[in-house]
Design brief:
157 residues; alpha+beta; Immunoglobulin-like; 1 helix; 22% helix; 41% strand
Length: 157
């Protein structure tokens, strides 16, 4: 191979190598970010979403049950709950007794989840709230102390 051909080969391989490296780094970053959305960690505590269900209550409000587990070795304090970036209007709420136009949760604000505990929380999205219909996907976020987020996409039934 002549010196000119070798230079051309080196010029071609450098951009390809940079492109491949940038793709690998982007995929690694995305994988790490997505892995952290279902787990919230702080100082030894580690909350993760085990499962969720979505159904209608008897008044045609959506009822999303989210099951959480603290698999760490310290308590974790949960703070705010959001649905599609809208904070729920009432914490520690009872199940709605009619069709409503609010988003509420039975989770107490600043709820402490001890180590090794599993807890369930319910979020009610009113049947008259916004423009949601069955089949829509909503993003449920729980924010803990320190601003760390726990997220789950939920398909409304």
């Amino acid at each position: 191979m002549s010196e000119t051909e070798a230079r051309k080969a080196n010029l071609f391989s450098a951009p390809v190598l940079l492109f491949v490296l940038s793709i690998v780094l982007a995929l690694t970053t995305a994988y790490m970010w997505m892995g952290k959305t279902n787990r919230l960690s702080q100082e030894g505590g580690s909350i993760e979403i085990l499962n969720y269900t979505c159904s209608f209550d008897s008044h045609m409000n959506w009822e999303i049950m989210v099951f959480l587990c603290n698999s760490g070795n310290a308590s974790v304090v949960l703070g705010n709950v959001y649905v599609n970036n809208m904070e729920v209007s009432v914490y520690g709420a009872e199940a709605p007794s009619l069709t409503v136009d609010t988003i509420t949760t039975d989770l107490e604000k600043r709820r402490d989840i001890p180590e090794g505990r599993e807890v369930g929380m319910v979020i009610w999205i009113g049947g008259k709230f916004g423009f949601f219909t069955s089949g829509n996907t909503v993003r449920v976020q729980v924010v803990g102390e320190g601003g760390i987020e726990l997220m789950k996409n939920v398909v409304l039934v």
